[in-house]
Queue: 3 jobs
Job 1
Amino acid sequence: MQLPRLLTSLLFLSPLVVCHAVTSPDKKEVYTAGGGKCKNPLVRREWRLLPDQEKKNYIDAVKCLQTLPALTSNVVPGAITRFDDFQSIHIRLAEIIHNVGLFHHWHRYFVWFYEKALREECGYNGAQPYWDWTLDSASESAFLNSPIWCPTTGFGGNGPYINESGNPFLSIPGRTGGGCVPDGPFSNYTLHLGPRGSIAKNPQCLRRDFAPFISPLRLTKELVRLPHCEKAFDWYDFKAQAGAREAGFFLHESSFHSAPHIAVGGEAGQMGDIYASPGDPIFYLHHAGVDREWWKWQNVDPETRLKDARGPSIRFDFPFGNNFRGGNITLEHEIGLLELAPVVPLRKVMDTEGDLLCYSYAKEKAVYDPTTEKWVAEELSAEEEDWEACKN
Ligand SMILES: [Cu+2]
């Protein structure tokens, strides 16, 4: 369904992102993934809480992946770098990993492999950071001024406004960009794949097409909490993913997976492309954020929830319980990353601290201190943890 295009095309928003230094102490972790039960998990933290040196280390490692040669170019000649490898895998599997019950499992495995490549191939010694979108949801300007977009200690910002996005599949009223990202560490990187399912070599820039109104409308703490109030995984998963069958902007009110894709990618940006979205390095922070929500949900009742895998095995085969085409996924359902990784039953990725994965998420919250104009880490109180997890 087409929505009327708003007059925001006239209001080219040019956010001035202020990048404040963060100086919280480095946390030292030892990586012990594989070979027995996880002992010293890597701890993933919110981007803005990383000390600047750690932010730089992460960005440098991503840039390193963007220079290493692809491993899949014999299958996908358009894939030139290791960074492209990951985008290529997502493009080729996109139609079987979204709007299905294994969405969360597959993306957990995918982001973990990316983190592993950064560490093992690019000398990165930290954990995959995540993006907590709720921190930027107070207003449109909060979204536009997020430290995530900082050109020096973040991922660069929006593209300049272009009138025609050339995307016949999405109509996002209130989009504000669409051109090549002009600043930040990735403005010079040439992507090679997409749009959508295309894996032919197609050199292109990183594009963003911010739709900032989506942030306060879809990504507040109250809305992101809604799926957490579901006790069964299939409903949690459905609400988090969106399940929106039709293209366009009609996301479920709690779809914290889809909303940031559209808020960042709009019509023209890679992030809004369900196939090619990993072309934007912010994809991995976004999906770590999605993974963290699932991790929080699992940890409310680990006994039950670390074994709860349900939801359709065939795309859009809703409603649950009586999926008429393919039935539910099970713990034995297999997930893989084509040439990049072994196929594993999805029970292997249920526990982030199991015998394959070995990471967790920091139990802290980011608080903005207006006097120092800095984000600082504070401990999460038990009540706050309960509230976020929807235990009451
Ligand atoms: Cu995806």
Note: Confidence is low (pLDDT under 50) at residues 1-15, 23-34, 243-248.
Job 2
Amino acid sequence: MRITVPHIWRDIPFLYLKGMVKEKKKSQALTNHLKENTAMRKKPLFLTAVLATMLLAQPTFCQVCGDANGDGNANIGDIAYILNYTALNGAPPVVPEDAELDHRDGITFSDAATLADYMFWSLAPFPYTCGVTGTYSFAPASSDTVFLPRMLGIPDGIDSVQLPVTTSFETDLRGYYLPLLRTGSGSNDAFSITGIANTNEVAYSSIGSWIADTLVLFGVDFNRGEFAGKHNLYTLTYNRVNPGTGDIVTELTDRNALWRYAIEKNGDLFRPVVVYEDIILAPETLLVSLTELSFTATAGKPSRDTFTVEFTSSSIPISFNLTLTDPWIIVEPLPPEGLVTPATVTVTADATQVGIGNYTGEISIVDLDPPAPTTTDAIDIYFTVNEPGLYPSGDFDCDGIVDISDLTILIFYLFLDGDPPTPCD
Ligand SMILES: [Ca+2]
Ligand SMILES: [Ca+2]
Ligand SMILES: [Ca+2]
């Protein structure tokens, strides 16, 4: 943006220096006067009176309203200087009276915003004057809102979250000053603000700075209406500092009676509405590496096929259980207390208890904690059991295994006039 400097601004340094010379002469005359009098009369009372007179006669370096940094000019450097003082714990104005631009008692970011108004938008008669005629109202501003993030119940395993600070301001808002506590009072000390990024949605918002236990966010609008509307100005990074379930409640605070969280309008400070936005963790997904398994075996024997299935989650560990539809599905390990991601199991099929045929079953994934979607609810199992080359003795129904069905055939034959068993081919 091009900044047009009024002609009179270029004259200010000259006028200022001219005033300084005049005051210096006056001061020298007083010094000479003091010497003469102290030489003549050395009474301490008189000296005190003269010193007091001298102090009262000291030049007041208030010639340039807006010259917060004391370099003799009022310019954009003074806006930065006042912001540096009020928001970043920098040095105070060299002559505080020269920074009282909004005429309300105390140096705040409102004085910087007022100077920006004078300089860039000529919104006040020039030359402007400094001085105090009132105080800040800190009245509620019902149409200006700061949305603060809140995230509750963050499980162990999540060590860092990034949360937005959003504002919704009206067009006449010229600046904001928002000190955030490192750990809000509604938090439980598991997480703390460790970083901040400016989203660059608004050109003149500024990244804040740590002062004691606060992170101060501030901005002064150089571009009229820049802050109007809803904007995500910042992204806060919270990192884990203690174990356990974490609750984050971002909280505004007041650094002191003057530097309170506020917005600036028309040279006065107001309290914005504060609204909490609950941020929900994206649901964790249990990832299952295989969704179906196929086995073959000879009747009466275990399958030679073995599959490895992996269960993983991206950050939060998920505990879960596996349930099996059929006893011929063998999963190891399968501890009674369940499994926790990341977990790996091997799956085999056992044909010692099933006859020749095609079977289907499944491994179901149940009891997830925390509840989470899965890439599959169950792993489908297909099992083909083939004829054996040699049938075991007693296998009267020729299904490759000896079980109760063979005993049934034998009893029917011996006692109930059933057909006699025939040899298997
Ligand atoms: Ca200056
Ligand atoms: Ca002020
Ligand atoms: Ca059999």
Note: The pocket of calcium ion (ligand 2) is lined by residues 100, 102, 104, 106-108, 110-111 (CB under 6 Å).
Job 3
Amino acid sequence: MSMYNKFRKFDRVRRKMLTALTGGTLAGASALSMYQARAATGGPRSTGQPANAVVDLNKKGLQLIITGSGSALPDPLRGGASCAIVIDGAVLQFDCGRRVLENLMLVGINPMKIDHLFFTHLHFDHISDYDYFAIANWIAGRQETVHVYGPVGTERMSEGAIRHMHAMDFDFVRTILEYWPPHMTKRPREAPPYDVHDIGPGKALETDRFKVSCLETKHLPDASMKSLGYRIDSDYGAVAISGDTAVSEGMKTLSQDVDILVHECVKPDLGMTPGGKFSLKDFHNKDLMEQRPQTGHTSPSQLGQLARDVNAKKLVVYHLAPYTSVPAAIEMSGLYLGPSPGPSIWGEFINAMKRYYPGPVILAEDRMVFSLSEKD
Ligand SMILES: [Zn+2]
Ligand SMILES: [Zn+2]
């Protein structure tokens, strides 16, 4: 048996176990998952095999792809929390942190095919690949305008990324254009092909196939900074996507009766971890947190209650901390997470959610794919 086939077999067994544990459905065999499982068990690590291309842009239906399952803490085994939704070939990307472009490619989607890009908020872990996408996509010759939406500050962030952070590349593309061979097609557009919109609560986008709505969530300490959650409604069903948030009325409204709720869960319940900021009592004291507002997050017990209360049909949990990542990532995240409690932490997360929520709970991994097809 080749090394690759051994990895595939190992991954199939592991995914079966995970499916049994979570009561969910896992699709899209992932090389990163194999790597992750091996890292978690301390076994030898794969250098990474190409993942199967599991997303067909010509397929009718809604496909949800986890383009990043990790948190703000650097983690080579999980990209920044983000996902893509493909509806009848239209590609909607939600947040654009680390690894989004690579994960899209590994499931068979050329990032140049992103039609609409939505930001939940502008923390670095949710925008860190946007500048790369914006310049690379422009240079690669994207002709159609990409519509970019996000809370107040998104236009300024985009302008800063393209014209300031990458001022040199901006000028460089202008020079390329000046000397573009006349017989060569796919000449990049004169200006970067982005139409960027600061948006507030309400309808963000509506086409004849889907509608995207958003509401404010509870994440940022300063009232002038906003964070948004999104809901996508289509003939195939509804998906709600949280950015970072404490339990919020906004997410409760957006998540009502959804087929899939994709929600952050970076903060463990009190007592689950032995050290670090997340294990401090004060960090879990609602009154203290409101007096001294920091960035709000949701714990597994809180998320289980939310999923139950909104009657979500399936819960996909992302923005997961690097508890079981490589040792250097665990060490770097020590201020927040303390020493790693090991892989048992994920069982504790699932158990805490399932204490309240009877539906399937899936802890996301990069490049998981979920599909919804037309309802009868
Ligand atoms: Zn985040
Ligand atoms: Zn954040």
Note: The two ends are 44 Å apart (CA to CA).
